[in-house]
Design brief:
The structure is a single chain. With 327 residues, the protein is an alpha/beta fold. It is built from 13 helices and nine strands. Strands 1, 2, 3, 4, 5, 6, 7, 8 and 9 form a nine-stranded mixed beta sheet that branches. Strand 2, helix 2 and strand 3 form a beta-alpha-beta unit. Helix 1 packs parallel to helix 2 and helix 5 packs antiparallel against helix 7. The radius of gyration is 22 Å and the shape is globular. 31% of the residues are buried. The C terminus is likely disordered.
Length: 327
């Protein structure tokens, strides 16, 4: 099957985004790759989004609409995937846009891969200008599924589901509904879940997505709380299970959790190390005792030094394994 004949399902959760929705859908229908279906999942919108969705479905046979009671973005995506009929799928937020060539660019590089991601730009919605993007989250090149998940855990990869093309059979078999108490990390958790079942990933240099930034979008109105971060990290460890290949990435995520200031907001970073370790154990009750040996790492911001200390620790663990066993 050539790329031109492959069908792409574009899944768009829609909730009270009427001022953005037409621009979004218009950008999808302008795609240079025309073999698409646009799945608009109206998540119980209280504005005119439901009517707008129906208008597009009446005007263009490629548009399909699902109306559901308000259940959240994760449920909307889940239901969209279940109803989709494409060979590939991508997710688009109702307040964002795709460049005309976005789907075509991703699909052109899809042969032999389970996921293809592209670059993106942020755009100030009100001022109509592009915003700078950190260079460390523009991933280009080939990776395997393990590297993909590892980079997500370490926060070295952009966590959004958008600007990615997923092979549909993997998506249908492995998508999960993220619990509703997760408000701003649904994408991270679902990316990790899917990454555990992916073999090959490619990142391309083309810009394939436009994120619109405005004062009342979710990132600005609902920053992640301390308690949510604890819940999300516990969920990640549940997804990963006992796979030892992610051990270092998970530990580094715990360290970064402290470094990013969540504990600092509780006013304990300058307290004696004993209190610090006790608080750390409360946050991660499933930490093994040997982690406490490395608690002082939480105060080290120099990443190369951390790498050296981790390497030293692993050598000690290999040589004196019994000292690190869980009692």
């Amino acid at each position: 099957m050539t790329t031109s004949t492959q069908k792409v399902s574009i899944i768009v959760p829609v909730y009270n985004k009427e001022r953005f929705l037409r621009d979004c859908v218009d950008s999808l229908l302008r795609q240079t790759h025309t073999n698409i279906e646009v799945m608009l999942i109206d998540d119980g919108s209280s504005d005119q989004c439901g009517n707008i969705c129906d208008q597009y479905a009446s005007a263009d046979s490629r548009v399909r609409v699902i109306h559901q009671a308000n259940s959240g973005v994760s449920a909307a995506r889940y239901n969209g995937v279940a109803a989709a009929t494409g060979d590939w799928a991508c997710f688009v937020d109702a307040d964002d846009n795709l460049p005309d060539h976005g789907i075509e660019a991703l699909l052109k590089h899809s042969d032999g891969y389970d996921l293809v991601s592209g670059r993106f730009t942020n755009r100030d919605w009100e001022q109509g200008k592009e915003l700078p993007i950190p260079s460390n989250i523009q991933e280009i090149g080939d990776k395997d599924g393990h590297q993909f998940v590892d980079s997500l855990i370490r926060n070295s990869r952009f966590q959004s589901l958008c600007r990615q093309l997923f092979k549909m059979d993997i998506l249908k078999k492995n998508i999960i509904a993220i619990p509703p108490q997760v408000k701003v990390a649904e994408d991270l958790l679902l990316n990790i879940q899917l990454g555990l079942h992916i073999q090959k990933v490619r990142g391309i240099d083309d810009i394939v997505y436009y994120y619109n930034i405005y004062p009342d979008n979710t990132i600005n109105t609902h920053p992640m709380t301390y308690e949510e971060r604890v819940y999300v990290d516990a969920f990640i460890e549940q997804l990963i299970g006992q796979d030892p290949t992610y051990e270092e990435a998970l530990y580094r995520r715990r360290l970064n959790f402290l470094d990013l200031g969540f504990i600092a907001r509780k006013g304990i970073l300058q307290t004696p190390i004993g209190v610090f370790v006790k608080e750390k154990s409360k946050i991660y009750p499933n930490l093994r005792p040997r982690d406490k040996v490395l608690s002082f790492l939480c105060r080290i911001s120099n990443d190369p030094l951390r790498s050296i200390l981790w390497s030293t620790y692993k050598q000690l663990q290999k040589r004196f394994g019994k000292l690190f066993r869980k009692p």
